[in-house]
Amino acid sequence: MPWIDACATNDIDEEDLIRFDYEDRTFAIYHSPDGAYFCTDGLCTHEHVHLEDGLVMEYEIECPKHNATFDYRTGEAKRAPACVNLNTYRTKVEGGRVLIEV
Amino acid sequence: MAKRDYSLLGPNARQAVETGLAAAEWYHTDIPRKQMKELMQRSDQPAIRDTVMLFACMIVFAAIGIALWPSWWSAPFWLAYGVLYGSAMDSRWHECSHGTAFKTRRYNDWLYQIASFCMVRNPVSWRWSHARHHTDTIIVGRDPEIVAMRPPALFRIALNFLGILDAYDGWTRMLFNASGRIHPEEASYIPEQEQPKVIRIARIWVAIYAATIALAFAMGSILPLMVIGLPRLYGAWHHVLTGVMQHAGLADNVTDHRLNSRTVYINPVSRFIYWNMNYHVEHHMFPMVPYHRLPDLHDAIKHDLPAANTSMWQAYREILPVLRRQLAYEDVFLKRDLPPTAKPYREDFHAAALGAAAE
Ligand code: FES
Question: Fewer CB within 10 Å, N or C, chain A?
């Protein structure tokens, strides 16, 4: 699978996320409190609301619509009303850029 | 609009899905991400303080009520205890179902379980039903939590000031679920893998009520039921009083919370009981903001909202005439003016629903 240049490392505050659209897909890219980067599908698995306006708390993202939470490192759904995990994608940092493998 | 059918399995439910009203994109006031992040931050401290106060008051009021029982002097203490059990627990249930009351998830979950028991709302089913209320707020046929239907069932609302219908529904549903069954309406919004939890919790509750009733028989007194169960009836009035204000008399089938929800300034005691849910437009627009930050959120976005009602009294003076008119003509509703600083309502978007505004 190809590596895609998604954003600069400093585009995302620590403990926050941004939205990244690529072709007809949409992703969420996270900057964790320990400085690592992660990527998941952009849409919540409950009712497909985008996670971009959600709240990152440590290693979890809370959906802005009904407060479902996911571990963005593994995609695991941690709190109702989401029951289905998020897909996750590998990331790497090169020369101040975040790349995702999609 | 033809007669409204509020059933989640009826023709309006199908229509809402077909016309794209269900699970639609909703209007949001613009607010910088940095400020929003700050408003969404969780904290344990305010809710721990409020919860300690709540339980301390409940214990003291119930203890005095028991000590003075069966004298009429105990009545004011039961009334105070009842409002905390049958009304404050409604707002705790609500805030904890969003998971925003505390920062620590297990504190949220504990309070949510206790509040759900007091309100006789199965914590699993109602989490899903409340999610639907947020996806499809006041969309006929989709929202399971519409209080003031059209035409308004005033008798129903009046009975609920004593919790009669809600508690009856809660207890009969509890017995139904405890017998191992899930109602078809519940099945429309609770995923299958969650359904066994509904049944397990219903059975635990039945055991608690059975023990309470057994104790009442053993003592030959209803006193145990004054502490557990009955306050859901005699203490319900406050949550109905505040709950009716949330959406009554406003638009249905729209996708802008400024058209279907109401923010009301209320007194500090009611705000403690209601946990700031009087900032209701704000809560619906941004459900991730914890209750204790809603006044700040209100300040940040009020330039884009209809003016808040200045008191419960003033809100009811606005609501009651509309409800009365809806008895004869159910399409009537109140469309409130926006301040000049606000982004206008999307009339094109809501043309069908807004056709019959009362004002
Ligand atoms: S859409 Fe994400 S929790 Fe419902």
Answer: N
